[in-house]
Write a structure and sequence with these properties.
2 copies of one chain form a homodimer.
Chain A lengths: L1 E6 L8 H13 L3 E7 L1 H4 L8 E5 L10 H7 L4 H10 L5 E4 L3 H12 L9 E6 L6 E4 L9 H18 L7 E5 L9 H11 L5 E6 L10 E3 L2 H26 L3 H9 L1 H10 L8 E4 L5 E3 L6 H17 L1 H11 L10
Parallel strand pairs in A: 1-2, 1-4, 2-3, 4-11, 6-9, 7-8, 7-9
Antiparallel strand pairs in A: 5-6, 5-10, 10-11
Helix pairs in contact in A: 1-11, 3-5, 4-5, 6-7, 6-12
Chain lengths: 335, 335
C-alpha cells in the first residue's frame, strides 16, 4: 500500500474533478491509499471510503496568485499542507493541479533540493508522431546555467528509463540549428557537458523537429520550455478554431467534417496530454507531480497512477544517486 | 522606376521558382526594374525582357553552408554580389530566399549597421486569428541584451506603420506569464525600457496567445524567436500529418475530409506565409528582404512587392531616424 496525498483544491475545475479523479483512481489502483488534502466541508463526505483519509487545509492558493506571496501568507493552503505530508514522510508522493509556481516554490522551501541538485525542473510529456517525449524544463526556472541543463538531462533520463521503461533514451538540446556549435552560449556550453557524459546524447534538435518523435528527451531552459509548451497548446487550438470557422461557411464542409469526426476524435485522443498523468517536478526531496491546471478526472487519475509509480520506485532517492553519479567538478563547468 | 536585385539562386527550388516569381512580379508591378543576380547560363534567357538586367555571379551559397565560411570563400556568390549592388547604391532593395544566415552575415559585413543600431533583426509576419503580426527577432541574433530587444521593437513598429499601414501597433514582450515581473532577466529589463518609451507597449504575452492576434508585434531574442517559428511550422505539419493518418483508416473519414477539402484549402491560404512576402532584415544599411527557403513563385513575387515598398519609402533611412529618436543613454540601460 502506498500513501499518496492529493491537493483536492488544485486546478481550474477543482474540487469536483479532483474528487472524481480520486474515485476513479481508487477503483483502478488497489495499492493506492489516498490522503485528500482540502477544506473539511469538501472532503468530509469521502472519508468513509476505504483507503481514504483526510487532512484538513482550509486555505486555497488561487491560480493567478503570486507563489512567493502565497507561501508567506497562506501556509495553511492545501498545496503547502500536502507538501508538509511529504516532508514528514507521512505520504510518499503528492499530486496537485493547482498553481504550479506555488507547487515549485513550496517544494523548494518545504522539501528542499536533493543533494547535488542545483535546480529542480518540470518534466512534461508531449505527444509526437511516434512515442511521447519529455520536455525538460517546462518552466520551473529561468536563466538556467549549462550545468543546470546538464542535470535536467540526467534527471529526465532516469525518469524515462525508470517510470516509462525506455532504456537509454535519446537526449537532444533544443537549438536553432542541428550543426554542433549552432545555438546560444547556454546551448554551446551544455553541449560540451553532454558530449562528455555517458548519456545517449543526440546533439541539437530544431523547433521544427520536436514533434517528429526522433528523440526522447528535449532539454532547454524553463523560460523557453514554457513558451514552447504554451505556444504548442495555443497553436493547436488556433488551427482547430480556424478550421471550424471555414467549415461553418458551407453545408458540404459541415457534412464532411461530421463524417470525419471519428478521425478528429482519435487524433485528439492520441495527442491528449491528460493520458500522461501530469508533469513531475524532478530534483526536490520528495515525489511531486504537477498536473495541468485544466485537468479533468481522467488527468487526475493518471497523475495519481504516475505518483504511485514514483512512490513504488522511490524515484526521488534514485534521482539523488543519479545526480551524484554524473557529478562534474565545478571548475570544469562554464557559468 | 525602382531597381530591385533578386538572388536568382536563393531557395530550395531555385532557380526555376525564383525566375517564375520574377516573371509574375514584372507583370504585376509596372514600377519594378529587376536586376537578376546569378550564373550567366541561368539568367541569359531573361535579359531580353523589358525592365530586366542581369549581373553575373557564378558561385552559389548552399542552404546548409556555414555563413562565415561562405563569406570568406565565396565572395562571388549571388547573395554577396546582390548585397554589393545595394552597397553601391545600384539597387534600392535586395531579395534572397537563400541561406538566411549568409544573408545576415553578408549584410552585416558588406552593408554594415544603420547608425545607432546595435544588432539588426529579422521581422517575420505570422498569421493569427485576426490580422497577421510581426515576430522580431526571428533568428538574426542569439544572446541579445535588453537594449537590443528595445531597438527591435522600435524597428518593427516603424515597419508595421510604414509598410503595412497599421498605426501605433501594439507591442508585446514574449514571456512566461502576463504579469509584470514575470520572465527572465532579459524580459524584465526590456520591460523597463519599453514602459518608459512612447511606443504602444502592451506588456507581456504568453506563448499560448501569440496566434490569437491580440497584439501586432511580439518581441524576443532571436534564439527563442527562431525556435518558436520552427516549432510552429513543425507542429502545424505534424497535426495535419496525424489527421491524415487517422482519416486513411476509414472510407467514411476519407469521404468526409474530401467534402471538407475546400475548408482546408481556405484555411491553408489564410495561414500561408507565402502571402506576406518574406521577412525584412531590419537595421542594416539597405533594404534586405529574406524570403523563406521553401519559397515558391508566389512567395518570390510577394517578396519583390515588399522590396518595392521598402525602396519607395526608403525604409532603411527611416529606420535610422527612428532609432535615433528613440535613443536612450547607455548608462540607463542594463547589459
Amino acid at each position: 500500500m502506498y500513501r499518496i496525498a492529493l491537493d483536492v483544491m488544485g486546478g481550474d475545475f477543482a474540487p469536483q474533478v479532483t474528487l472524481e479523479g480520486a474515485t476513479f483512481a481508487l477503483k483502478s489502483f488497489p495499492e493506492l491509499h489516498l490522503v485528500l488534502v482540502g477544506p473539511q466541508r469538501v472532503i468530509a463526505p469521502f472519508l468513509t471510503y476505504p483507503r481514504v483519509e483526510g487532512i484538513f487545509a482550509e486555505e486555497v492558493v488561487y491560480m493567478d496568485e503570486s507563489p512567493g506571496e502565497a507561501l508567506k501568507k497562506k501556509r495553511g493552503a492545501s498545496i503547502f499542507v500536502g507538501l508538509d505530508l511529504l516532508k514528514k514522510g507521512y505520504a510518499q508522493a503528492f499530486v496537485s493541479a493547482g498553481n504550479s509556481g506555488a507547487v515549485v516554490a513550496g517544494s523548494m522551501f518545504i522539501l528542499g533540493r536533493l543533494t547535488g541538485v542545483r535546480r529542480p525542473a518540470i518534466a512534461t510529456l508531449l505527444p509526437t508522431l511516434r512515442e511521447p517525449m519529455v520536455l525538460i524544463d517546462a518552466g520551473a526556472n529561468v536563466d538556467s546555467k549549462p550545468y543546470d541543463l546538464y542535470q535536467f538531462a540526467v534527471m529526465a533520463n532516469l525518469f524515462l528509463e525508470t517510470i516509462w521503461g525506455r532504456p537509454q533514451p535519446k537526449i537532444a538540446l533544443l537549438s536553432i540549428g542541428e550543426e554542433i556549435g549552432k545555438g546560444n552560449f547556454l546551448v554551446k556550453e551544455t553541449h560540451k557537458l553532454l558530449s562528455a557524459s555517458s548519456l545517449n546524447y543526440y546533439g541539437n534538435i530544431e523547433g521544427r523537429d520536436i514533434y517528429r518523435g526522433e528523440v526522447d528527451i528535449v532539454v532547454c531552459d524553463g523560460f523557453i520550455g514554457n513558451i514552447c509548451l504554451k505556444l504548442s497548446e495555443g497553436l493547436a487550438e488556433t488551427i482547430l478554431e480556424m478550421l471550424k470557422k471555414e467549415v461553418k461557411e458551407s453545408f458540404l464542409y459541415l457534412l464532411g467534417m461530421s463524417l470525419a469526426k471519428g478521425a478528429l476524435k482519435a487524433f485528439k485522443k492520441k495527442t491528449d496530454w491528460r493520458e500522461y498523468g501530469g508533469a513531475p517536478l524532478l530534483g526536490v526531496k520528495g515525489n511531486v507531480i504537477i498536473s495541468h491546471g485544466k485537468s479533468d478526472a481522467l488527468a487526475i487519475k493518471n497523475a495519481l497512477r504516475q505518483a504511485l509509480h514514483f512512490a513504488k520506485l522511490d524515484l526521488a532517492n534514485q534521482l539523488e544517486k543519479a545526480i551524484q553519479q554524473h557529478h562534474i567538478e565545478e571548475e570544469e563547468v562554464a557559468d
